[in-house]
Amino acid sequence: MKMSSGKLGMKAGRPSAAKAGPTLSDLADKAATVRVNFDLDRAEHTKLKIYAAKTGRSITDILRELVRSLDEKSD
């Protein structure tokens, strides 16, 4: 009986090591971001979280939309 060479045809390493080239979204100009951190009391957070769930959006999306609307309200 002949012994195999021990090679299974597989390579060691993570699949992510062979990452694909850049995508179109990687090449797009993205605005620099700034992290915003503030405190809400539990009731306010719960209210915001419920609103987000009811509208199917994230809290982040809701707050970004609010900030974008500020330009329109200041006119």
UniProtKB/TrEMBL annotation:
<dbReference type="GO" id="GO:0043565">
    <property type="term" value="F:sequence-specific DNA binding"/>
</dbReference>
<protein>
    <submittedName>
        <fullName>Partition protein ParB</fullName>
    </submittedName>
</protein>
<dbReference type="GO" id="GO:0006355">
    <property type="term" value="P:regulation of DNA-templated transcription"/>
</dbReference>
<feature type="region of interest" description="Disordered">
    <location>
        <begin position="1"/>
        <end position="24"/>
    </location>
</feature>
<dbReference type="InterPro" id="IPR013321">
    <property type="entry name" value="Arc_rbn_hlx_hlx"/>
</dbReference>
<dbReference type="InterPro" id="IPR010985">
    <property type="entry name" value="Ribbon_hlx_hlx"/>
</dbReference>
<dbReference type="InterPro" id="IPR015354">
    <property type="entry name" value="DNA_partition_ParG"/>
</dbReference>
<dbReference type="Pfam" id="PF09274">
    <property type="entry name" value="ParG"/>
</dbReference>
<keyword id="KW-0614">Plasmid</keyword>
